[in-house]
Write a structure and sequence with these properties.
heterodimer, A: alpha/beta, Leucine-rich repeat, LRR (right-handed beta-alpha superhelix), 19-stranded parallel sheet, two-stranded parallel sheet, 28% helix, flat, B: alpha+beta, Potassium Channel Kv1.1, Chain A, three-stranded mixed sheet, 47% helix, 13% strand
Chain lengths: 596, 98
């Protein structure tokens, strides 16, 4: 898998020979030594070649601070996000990069304020991302002030305070400023009002109140505004804003009184609390709105939707809306592409209302709703659908014609009408083997997720005939060793998730893995085989929940980042040669310790 | 090999490589030079000079052209690149769009 990801990393390079060269140049530490003294050639290297070379070295763990020096005339953009080794020494070398315009060191935990000193006075730096470098504080901001060219600055979740933010007012060219998760007050915002070029402002999680929000009127070019998790209840008439996020705020009113000219196109109000939703939207021009997220807002009444005709994306998940509300959705369904009704009270009867009213709908989510097999037959009448999510619903896969008639209809047959269906998720339903049969006729399907303890080997056998399947998940199924042995995966299959299939033994899984080496198998017994490091993923619930780890200073985080995934460090060919020749020394200069 | 089917590539040092036109066309840049109707001198004489590309690199480039044709026809072998020439070769490949 690692090899594949490295390949995609270089894929944007048009020239195949350039790709081969970069691969050869980063084959081993010896290879690097053979070219690193070609100083004059390195100086002439165009940035579009130098940058992929540098980032490839980084991924292969061949990059170290003094090697950075060879790139100091060629690299303009550098992305070191999440690299735990990046520290003040790296920054010292980066400070010498003559033409650096973009630097991303987000999540580099060793970066502190004094490390930023090396950057002061850089001449072309436009973009600096220090997000979640928790050791950076107001002193670090002082070092940045000498870089007059900065246009984009991200310092979310650092230790910068109101005083530090106030200093930013001297960076007159700032157009994007991410101050998310900082404990800053209205005073900080007041001192920023000289930054009239600001287009993008992130203030989530700060102590900004309504009073501070009124300063937002001073930014004439502001198009993106994030006020999530703040105390702002009334948004002033910021007429330039097109993207607004006020998730988890208590919202009294969007815009204050008449005379507002904002052309909002994207609104995110996830988890917001509305006092009176009709009043909140009363001064609001909805004719440009295409994206609306109202998830988890305890809404019962969504009648205001009927005013929003250009809607393409609608998220109402986690609200108390029922079938009667679906009429309002149907009335604005003409342009709808994505609809999320998960965790609502919408039933199959509600889905029926949508039939014929949503001609462009591509994604529908009905997870954990009281919908059943009837809903599937209605979904079969929405021809443009590409993704259907019905996790945790009452779908059983069979419809009994009537009480006395024992003849059953397989409800999933209705999905065969969806010629574009690519993704189907019907996890956590009571599906049995015979109900699965129609799925094997879905030729366009690439992602299939099933999770039912009634499914057996027979299902796996049926599914092997889906030609384009990339990702197949059959969790908690009763699969046996014989079943997996006789399973021939579709040629395009990349991931097979068998988590929770408790009957499978380690030997059977390993022989499958060896036979089909291009399929990534997920199972408790397989992860320990592939790499011991993967264990940390299983044990820590923090992985993959990056946006939620607000202010968390868990020691686990840095520890995890410090672990080098062995699969990234070596190419697939190298790994294979190691596997078969555990005694011989590997091709790279630092031979791996092969497991005894 | 007929003369019309070949092209001559000349390195910085003046070494001449005569190769199949088909092979040379692997490079988008050379293809443009040879096929564009603009009346390039290159089109008429089927001769391209590369004052920026050294002989060793141009030789490797020519090898790559032939390897690439073979690879496209299904013969999947590895194209070995000596690590010390990767940088120069990379720049030449970038210039030649190959």
């Amino acid at each position: 898998m690692a090899d594949r990801s490295l390949f995609t990393e270089l894929e944007h390079l048009e020239s195949p020979l350039v790709r081969l060269c970069i691969e050869a140049a980063t084959q081993s530490a010896d290879a690097v030594e053979s070219w690193r003294r070609q100083r004059r050639t390195l100086e002439r290297l165009p940035s579009q070649l130098a940058e992929p070379l540098l980032h490839r070295l980084l991924r292969r763990r061949l990059l170290y601070p003094s090697l950075l020096e060879v790139f100091k005339y060629s690299v303009e953009k550098i992305d070191l996000r999440g690299e735990s080794s990046v520290d003040a020494e790296w920054m010292a070398y980066l400070g010498a990069f003559q033409y650096l315009s973009s630097l991303n060191v987000s999540d580099c935990h060793r970066i502190n304020s004094s490390a930023l000193w090396a950057l002061s006075g850089m001449r072309y730096l436009k973009e600096v991302d220090l997000s979640r470098c928790s050791k950076v504080d107001d002193a670090g901001i002082k070092h940045l002030l000498s870089i007059r060219t900065i246009e984009i600055l991200c310092i979310s979740e650092t230790s910068v305070t109101t005083n530090g933010v106030a200093l930013l007012s001297s960076l007159k060219r700032l157009s994007k400023l991410d101050l998310g998760g900082l404990f800053i007050t209205d005073t900080a915002l007041a001192s920023l009002q000289v930054l009239t070029n600001l287009q993008h402002l992130d203030l989530w999680g700060s102590d900004i109140s309504n009073e501070g929000a009124s300063i937002l009127l001073k930014f004439p070019n502001l198009t993106f505004l994030n006020l999530a998790w703040t105390k702002v209840t009334v948004l002033p008439n910021v007429s330039s804003v097109t993207h607004l996020n006020m998730s988890n705020c208590t919202i009294h009113s969007i815009f204050k009184g008449e005379g507002n000219k904002a052309k909002l196109s994207k609104l995110t109000f996830a988890g917001a609390l509305f006092k009176d939703i009709d009043k909140a939207f009363s001064y609001f021009d909805s004719s440009y709105l295409s994206y609306l997220d109202l998830s988890n807002s305890s809404l019962r009444d969504i009648s205001l939707l009927s005013l929003i005709c250009a809607l393409e994306y609608l998220d109402l998940s986690g609200n108390l809306v029922g079938d009667d509300s679906v009429t309002f959705i149907a009335s604005v369904g003409a342009n709808l592409k994505s609809l999320n009704l998960s965790k609502t009270r919408v039933s199959s009867a509600g889905v029926a209302v949508l039939v014929g009213r949503v001609p462009k709908l591509e994604t529908i989510s009905l997870d954990f709703t009281p919908t059943d097999d009837l809903a599937i037959s209605y979904i079969g009448m929405m021809p443009s659908l590409k993704a259907v999510n019905m996790k945790g619903t009452n779908v059983r896969g069979v419809i009994q014609q009537n009480a006395e008639n024992t003849e059953c209809v397989l409800s999933l047959t209705a999905l065969e009408n969806l010629k574009h269906l690519e993704k189907l998720n019907i996890e956590e339903t009571a599906l049995k083997d015979e109900a699965i049969i129609p799925i094997s006729n879905l030729k366009q399907l690439t992602h299939l997720s099933l999770r039912s303890s009634f499914l057996t080997d027979a299902s796996l056998h049926h599914l092997s005939s889906i030609p384009n399947l990339i990702n197949l998940s059959m969790r908690d199924a009763i699969l046996t060793n014989t079943g997996i042995e006789s399973f021939t995966p579709p040629p395009s299959l990349q991931v097979l998730d068998l988590t929770g299939c408790w009957l499978l033994t380690k030997d059977a899984l390993l022989s499958f893995v060896q036979l089909h080496s291009d399929v990534e198998v997920r199972h408790a017994l397989v992860t320990t085989f592939l790499s011991d490091k993967d264990d940390s993923k299983c044990h820590s619930p923090f992985m993959g929940t990056a946006p939620q780890r607000r202010f968390s200073s868990s020691p686990l985080k840095s520890e995890m980042a410090a672990i080098i995934d062995q699969r990234l460090k070596y190419s697939r060919a190298e790994l294979l040669s190691m596997q078969f020749a555990s005694t011989s020394v590997g091709p790279s200069s630092d031979p791996p310790t092969s497991p005894k | 090999m007929k003369k019309e089917d070949t092209v001559k590539l000349i390195s910085a040092e003046g070494f001449e490589f005569v190769i199949d036109k088909n092979a040379a066309m692997v490079s988008q840049t050379i293809r443009n030079m040879l096929t564009s109707p603009g009346g390039f001198a290159e089109t008429e004489h089927r001769e391209v000079t590369f004052p920026e590309i050294s002989t060793t690199i141009l030789e490797k480039i020519c090898q790559y052209f032939y390897w690439s044709l073979q690879y496209a026809s299904g013969k999947e072998t590895e194209f070995y690149i000596e690590p010390e020439m990767t940088l120069e070769l990379m720049m030449a490949a970038n210039y030649l769009h190959t």
